[in-house]
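Why Heme haloperoxidase family profile domain-containing protein? Reviewers of the renewal asked for a concrete example.
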Amino acid sequence: MRPSTVCVAFLASFACSFPWLKPEGIETLLNHPEAQAEITKRLTEHEAIHANQRETRQLNTGLVGGLVTLLDGTLSAVLDNVLGLIPTNEAVKGLKRFPEEKHPYQAPGPTDQRGPCPGLNTLANHGYIPRNGIATIGQINAATAAVFNMGADLSSLLATGGAIDGGDIISQKMSIGGADDRVGVLNGALNKVLGTPSGIAGHGKFNEGDASATREDFYLNGDNISFKPELFKQLHQQAISKGNGTYNVDAIKEHFKNRYAASKAANKQFYFNLPSSAVVMGAYYFIPGFFSNGTIGAGGIANEASITSFYGAKPTKEGQWSDPELTYTHVPERIPEQGWYRRATPMTIAEAVGGILDVYLYALPPMGGSGADQSWVVGPANIPNNPQAFSCFLYNAIYANFPSELFNSVVLVETVVNALSGLIAPGYKALGCTVNFPDATGTGVSQYDAWSKMYVGDAKYKATGSGWYKTT
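Here is what the prediction returned.
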């Protein structure tokens, strides 16, 4: 059964049903050696299974009928573990294929840091950042651009936040997991005096928060790093019910809505407040945004094969990915072995904030945190509902948030402000935001109180899980 024959028969029936399957995309798919081999294998298996139904199939236009059955709905056609890894011709333009020979996969060793971010774990497992999981802002910027096509403005924001809040901003170094004595002033020589930076997994920091997609809240069992198979199973169920078999934006929004509700109900110190809550919601959007095979919206597919590989979610039964009761175990994260294409265009802050806002407006999660008396302490009021205004609001929340957290970064206010100004402000200026944060040079942080109340809210100091809860 030749792929060219399949192509001719298939195009007429399915061009309208699946708009992303353009003729040139089908041609690329069917001329791809991996796809050719897999299609032949699947059709052979299909013929054997349905041999006793041959007459019925022939009445349904023979070859086309068989292929329609094989690629029923959008499940196998769009999402199959192998076929789904081959983007359309439209998506292939400007993309880069992975994995690369010069960056082989290697499981982490006993002293290597790994954390709650599957993307950073993947980069370390392939050596795009140091395999020990101790990386600088510059190394993270370069690696996220090379593998995920993350824009420099977005990577600088996230990496700088990690260095300020959980690392050493002076050396611009951080652990992608938990606390590590290899990080700190003078390479950690003063950690016994100043304290060991928490790493990006430090609870209540900029890059970590409750209601994660696949990690448990820190308060529940003290572990916000380990992958939880049950939570991924819930994400998988949403991919089937809401994403039509893909881990698309609809699926991740529903998963976030459910995770927020469950986390808030179980966690007596639940904290979900800007700016860290925006990073949490951004991590949901990053699932299809970065892990899709190709660029979402341009033929890219957030299928089971690519998402499970980046999350290290190993199904307990192969070939049963359409089963909503499928369970998973965890293996180290890696770039899909079958072949995966990076998104074609960089994801900038503008796209990321648009994705965050989409997640937020779908679930409308209250911002704030649990108080000491089990009350709810509200976060900022009047959160904008358009991407540009929300970008500027988030930018101001970041500036209002960091200077009060100096106990986490063992550096002076002036150093923090300079780092924020040099590494983060340019991206927000490009969005048209006014840079008018308070001048903290050589002073304390008291003048940030009014600023933080506007952009972060009372929960900053009064929510027990905030990380800087005031007991007096």
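The beta strands are 97-98, 134-136, 173-175, 271-272, 313-315, 328-330, 340-341, 368-370, 376-378. This is the kind of structural detail the renewal will allow us to pursue systematically.
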